[in-house]
Amino acid sequence: MKIYQKSINELEQIVQRKTMQLSDLKVEQTVSDIIKKVIENGDSALKEYEEKFDGVKISDFKLSQGVIDSAYDNLDPEVKDALLLAKRNITSFHEKEKATGFIDSEQRGVLRGQKVLPLKRVGLYVPGGTAAYPSTILMSALPAKIAGVDQVVIVTPPQKDGINPAVLAAAKIAGVDSIYQVGGAQAIAALAFGTESIARVDKIVGPGNIFVATAKKQVFGQVDIDMVAGPSEIGIIADSSADYKQIAADLLSQAEHDKRARPILITDNLELAKAVDAEVDRQLKVLPREKIATASVNDKGFIAVVKEIDDMFTLMNTVAPEHLEVQVENPTQYLNQIKNAGSVFLGKYASEPLGDYVAGPNHILPTGGTARFSSPLGVYDFVKRTSFIQYTKPALEKEAKAITTLARVEGLEGHARAIESRFGKFYD
């Protein structure tokens, strides 16, 4: 990994360059063409794209309940137990996120309030390809169900040998209502606009490749989305008390996701930096996904060495990582110095995969520096808020002059006259 020893200002500039996300115009155009064709041709377009991109001919997109039940019944008991443990912890954490509305009647004659309502239908994108992600189903479907969403459906790329049984079992455990064998940008288009087989949804959530992320961005407005997710990333803050072997392992836990994943270490100890660099090289040689992780480490990873512990947090706040590990002595005392991170892991025993699977907090997190302004997926992503007001005539009369004054300042005479009509004043 490249090791940088520069001023904090120079390091911040390096970080900003390395985390910058630029649009790929070719991908944008390809995705736009796919979406247009799905809108125009529906299921026939989906079948064409699945055969072209996934090499699978699909006659019926919707998986039968029998196939799902069989996958659950025949799942390895250890895998099933792990999924059930994850469900319990994810549920207990996300139950605490539930919000309620309110009613305010503090002013005489005025009733104000807010209703919190669940979305009706949500689509979950579950990646296929080089890995299966049953954990992603739990992380997206369970908060939706806790929020009260009526219909939760999954789209996932078809596989020549069938969809991974752990994925199907996780869907059953999470209470998913339907599973459709369709992936890529075409799946996002189907969820957003609907086809003969797949009804449109109100919101699309879940990670995917660059085509999926671009499709989500393009359909936003037609439907809501959780975020435009980029490659996975991990930032680690470590001092001399940290174990270099553990740090290397944690960096590679994210590097193995994607060639564009970002593994980043910031430390105040040059010897630790050198030890981690050498250990990453050693562990890469025995990692099954060596090719992917090596590309990530070489192209996107780096180690920054700073002088002070405060500088580590200043620089990492600029990174705004998806996952942030704090491997220093007494890590909780620095929690207030963390301003930008999707999820934080404190201490040597809070390794990032703990959050990926069983701890409970969501693992669908803001990437690419967007933790500066966005949050992990949660129950709050599956509800909408509707406000309401009621005024008596005396209450409205008390505020009518302010309303009509502001309306006329804005040149909206009709607004002012609508208020005045309540008091018998009409214009011919």
UniProtKB/TrEMBL annotation:
- Tell me the GO molecular function terms: histidinol dehydrogenase activity
Residues binding NAD(+), per UniProt: Y125, Q186, N209
Cited PROSITE patterns: HISOL_DEHYDROGENASE
Active site: residue positions:
E322, H323
Q: Does the keyword Amino-acid biosynthesis apply?
A: yes
Q: Where does substrate bind?
A: S232, Q254, H257, H323, D356, E410, H415
Query: What start-end ranges are recorded for coiled-coil regions in this protein?
Result: 1-28
Please give the InterPro entries that the UniProt record associates with this protein: Ald_DH/histidinol_DH (IPR016161), Histidinol_DH_CS (IPR001692), Histidinol_DH_monofunct (IPR022695), Hstdl_DH (IPR012131)
- Keywords for this protein: Amino-acid biosynthesis, Coiled coil, Histidine biosynthesis, Metal-binding, NAD, Oxidoreductase, Zinc
How does the cofactor bind to this protein, according to its record? Binds 1 zinc ion per subunit.
Which reactions appear under catalytic activity for this entry?
Answer: L-histidinol + 2 NAD(+) + H2O = L-histidine + 2 NADH + 3 H(+)
Q: In which pathway does it act?
A: Amino-acid biosynthesis; L-histidine biosynthesis; L-histidine from 5-phospho-alpha-D-ribose 1-diphosphate: step 9/9
Q: Which domain of life is it from?
A: Bacteria
List residues binding Zn(2+).
Q254, H257, D356, H415
Name the enzyme's class.
oxidoreductase
EC? 1.1.1.23
Q: Which Gene3D superfamilies match?
A: 1.20.5.1300, Nitrogenase molybdenum iron protein domain
What cofactors does the UniProt entry give for this protein? Zn(2+)
By its UniProt entry, which Pfam families does this protein fall under?
Answer: Histidinol_dh
State the similarity comment. Answer: Belongs to the histidinol dehydrogenase family.
What does it do?
A: Catalyzes the sequential NAD-dependent oxidations of L-histidinol to L-histidinaldehyde and then to L-histidine.
* Family matches, as HAMAP family: HisD
What name does UniProt use for this protein? Histidinol dehydrogenase
